[in-house]
Batch of 2 targets.
Target 1
Amino acid sequence: MVDVLGILSFAFDFRFVLLVFVGSVAGLFVGAIPGLSVSMATALLVSITYSWQTTDALATIMGVYVVGVFSGALSAILINIPGAPSSVVTTLDGFPLAKRGQSYQALSYAIMYSFIGTLFGFIALLLVAKPISSLALRFTPMDYFLLALFGLTTVGSLTSKQFSKGLISAALGLLFSMIGIDSVMGTARMTFGIRNLQAGINIVPALVGLFGFSEVLMSLSVSLEDGEVAKMSKTPIRLKELLRHAPLSLWYATIGVFVGALPGAGGPVAAFLAYSQAKRVVKHPSVPFGEGAVEGIVASETANNACIGGAMIPMLTLAIPGDAVTAIILSVFYVHGLRPGPMFIQTNSDMFQAILAGGFVGSFFLLLLGYLAAPRISKVLTIPKRVLLPLVTVLCVIGSFAANNRSFDVLLMFLFGILGFFMRRRSYSVAPMTLAIVLGGMMDSNFRRAVSLASSEDNKLLALFGRPITMILLLLLLITLATNSNLFNRRRKSK
Amino acid sequence: MTTHHKHSMTCYEGIAFLLLSVSLIVYSLVNHAEAQVEWKQSPYLFPLLIAVFLLPLSLSVIKQGAKQCPQESGKFQGKPTLVMVAATALYIASMGLLGFLVSTALFLLFIIRYLGEKRWVVTISIAILFPVVLYLLFAMLLHVMLP
């Protein structure tokens, strides 16, 4: 059992709290500036905190992680560029709401439900680390593959006007993720002799290009007038109204924790799954989903922040990182001579307490900095397009370069920006492509592992799909495909 | 963009995806044969699966294009978009020669002016101050390498 007093001793240690605060401020800017990612910031912190005490390093990193994941929503809402893949869903309703002059309302919901999601995630980490990780342990390679495929089809159905266009976007993203050295055989695949492609397509330049540079081009192609930039009117929202969605947000937070606990899935899948749940559960949203429904922001922001606590579960108990940031945190442990695993919580309870304390304190800084700094950050909207768009372009160039210090990544960002522009002009959502680039490698390796394992069995079909978890995931996938098919839609319309 | 052009664009998109799908199937099969491994271990198994998945989707887009009702396309300002693409390409290319500070300043100076900022003071101030602030923040304070 975790010593609550141990957590409190960290939470009341001035040095610890100050370092979480420093990390939180850094996370706020890193998350909000398009093209700068939380994983990039934490990766930089590993080198800076190399010689620090482990608890100091953890305090700073937890601040960056918690507030950085939230602040991706700031740029998603205010300028329609998600700060991180986790915030992609927030753009769907956040930006339309901001465009109607209700950005303060959108931000208030994002702040409050990111806070609730984070708290829930860390409470879950505190209470159910072991049971959830033991369930994740039962997942077979085919289950991981189906889970990712389910995530992609859900995204395709949610973000595109036509389901087939959403799926094409996902398929293209999967193709891009295949480029590089094959993880199983170690041979170059789809590189066409280009050496720089051997390292594969990095998600950062792809994300920056598809969402950042393509947004610049879209914005220019429509109009140079500044009228489209959302204005901020600080209409106060009553706490009672703000917390109206709290009971339902617990369900989204549960999804976030569960998805976070599954290695490889992470924030984007959690946000999309929660959003699709919201569309099913909330029968009468404030406005239709996709047009500025606060219910959509609530679902996405609760789930992606709850994912933080969830992603920590397999990282701490199984040494399997749940996402990119937890992979970097894992490296912090290794740098400091610690070995996470099934016995970690028992043998290194002080480190576990530091992580929990960092998470809880960080979530309070999220609330504080969110309400204090968000209205000021929104002033970026008052900058005219003729100035803002070139500045965003420069940030896109820096952001795509900084992740790997490769000029080739800047070129990739540029090409993905042009591709994203054409896709958006032709109503192909770029969100499924982004998610597919993130999940493609994991899907490939798990699919091949599943096929290899089944090939030695007599009944191959039963070996692949015969387990209860697999059957449930397959059923969910088939339902998603069927309910979005033309045949189903025609029948529904005829009724 | 005319209505007829838009109508046929969807068909062309579908045909392009169909060609991509067929090319990918051929690519996967040829490279798999050269790799001389079983399918269960083949690096080309998953690309083949994606290609097969893409085939009916591209046919669906062609079908949609054939059936599509005439629609008015949205506003499109081609010239500023093209200028931005060209200026960014030049900016990226020039960074290797001129360095981050100079190329960023020149890019900002040109593009802000082109996009309609009439005040020289504002344009020059942004073009000089923004790269310097970024340089101080990233290169000096955060030790992040700049292009």
Note: Chain B touches chain A through 62 residues (CB under 8 Å).
Target 2
Amino acid sequence: MSDTTAHEEPELIQLLTPEGELAGHPDYPLDISAEEIRALYRDLVLVRRVDSEAVSLQRQGELGLWASLLGQEAAQIGSGRALGERDMAFPSYREHGVAWCRGIAPKELLGMFRGVTNGGWDPHEHGFHLYTIVIGSQALHATGYAMGVQRDGAVGEDGTAVISYFGDGATSQGDTNEAFNFAAVNNAPVVFFCQNNQWAISESTERQSRVPIYRRAAGFGFPGVRVDGNDVLACLAVTRAALDNAREGNGPTLVEAFTYRMGAHTTNDDPSRYRASAELDEWKAKDPILRVRRYLENNGLADEAFFASVDTEAEAIGEQVRSECRGLVDPEPLDIFHEVYAEPNVQIDRQRSEFAEYLASFEGAGAEGGR
Amino acid sequence: MGTNLTIGKAINAGLRASMEHDPKVLVMGEDVGKLGGVFRVTDGLYKDFGADRVIDTPLAESGIVGTAIGMAMRGYRPVVEIQFDGFFFPAANQTFTQLAKMRRRSAGKLSMPVVMRIPYGGGIGAVEHHSESPEAYFTHTAGLRVVTVANPEDAYWMIQQAVRSDDPVIFLEPKRRYYEKAEVDTAAPIEEATPMGAARVARHGTDVTLLAYGPMVKTALQAAEADTDHSIEVVDLRSLSPVDYPTIVESVKRTGRLVVAHEAPLSGGPGGEIAARVTEECFYHLESPVIRVAAFDTPYPQSRLEEHYLPDLDRVLDGVDRAFAY
């Protein structure tokens, strides 16, 4: 291998060290109050709790599947809190923290993983598109949406920006690369936010990309930046800058949030088959929540009562997630036919009425001794 | 007042009318701008509506359909051109997993008013991947509407109906019929045009129903003309999804026989589905089994063989004869 560039250690934008010390960065100054940092801490703790509760619910058979965000809270809360009200986010399927920031109730997410909905929230109401399962598809939707924003003349100081979330595995998909190219060619106001959590199920980043992911952007003609994805302040500052850049008409940015998926890919996965426990220990030391807590404690910006109140709130949310999950009602059988088409469709209408008749044929069957 | 138009020009005029009617209508695809598309169907639109509404895209079909989905979410009505049938496949994921299912996934919160125009079918002596009939892939996918045209009148009105539809519409253009010419009353109100989902009796007859769509309608009409032994009723299907079964069933009940002809390969093609349904609904009216005349279950052949591959007048007439052999 003669390519030495692949071995250079890329710069990692970091504002808060794992030890909880403010590092600062000349290009990404962050003017943030203690109160705002406490609010970020609260977000991090609460989404971690929603997530762990969902994992438990899956283990109890209440959810068909869950994709845990454990370890990626800072990347999601930092970028999610950088979004303005008018901005539009296009998530993959692990963005529970971003969903939290966009006001999507945890039970909406649970509904999808329980099989009650396919993701029934209103994307426009929340500025948060539906979860997209097929890897990389949403990067194109985000780019097209951003091209629409341009045509609306909504680019400028108070403009709208668009953000697309995906993982390291998605950078291997054609759609993601086509999105980079469409966005670059059109100078579209979109930020590509890659959470490089090091593993695409069992395949390491080295199996996805020969070069550091953020460096891909240069080939498409826009800036790429690698940020410490376990540093909520850095994720906030870098994403905010990229969004502002986009909304001001300067085109796309690729943000690579360098982070780690501490749990399994989904509840169906067993990471012990493909990665060493020492790796997990190494990343545990970089825990995104711990460093914010250390910072707040070391600088006397939060007392025990504050941490206790957040923990109490987390308990309450855990309780709420549990009861709401069990309270999710199965859809009616005839919902199978709902919302397939906007306009009447004779084929579907016919099948619906035939199935309704069939279902009705069972009514009263129990009383008559069943069939 | 009528205007004499080819199918290609009629679609062009229909697109123009759509863009004039609604500023949210956009045209996008490869070479659709200054060139006016490889078949010139978007000719002149770039000049009159500008680069913001007639978008020359990078050469990437998935990118075209995927960004059109995002545009639709932002309130636009994109009409995308896929340059040739065989180039649709790179966009299959965006079409099947995203475009078709978005309304359902969002529980009706999102509509996808996207039209995918695809020049399709053979008979122009093209190289491979330029002559395919992929309609069955689309008709098997819930959430898509699939239509095709056989004359300039339909071409002019149906493209406008497709653009106005809040559902994604796969608009199949029979490329070997682009230059067929007829009078179109472009001044008539759109409300008076035959609905996009309706089949049409193109020629009345009493002995057998010959069902065709797109490029095969002309062949079917020629067959009806040529066959002096039987009175052939020709039905132009127009909409492949949903299918207007009442019109078909009514015709078959009158004639007692059905022959379906299409360019798509036989197995798993639209003809099989129609045959099954007609058998269910018209069993006691049928004088013979439903006969299918279709292309073979092979890859589209090199163009020097396509005259044997495509069902031509003789094969359609042979199909009709088979229907009378019972």
Note: Chain B touches chain A through 48 residues (CB under 8 Å).
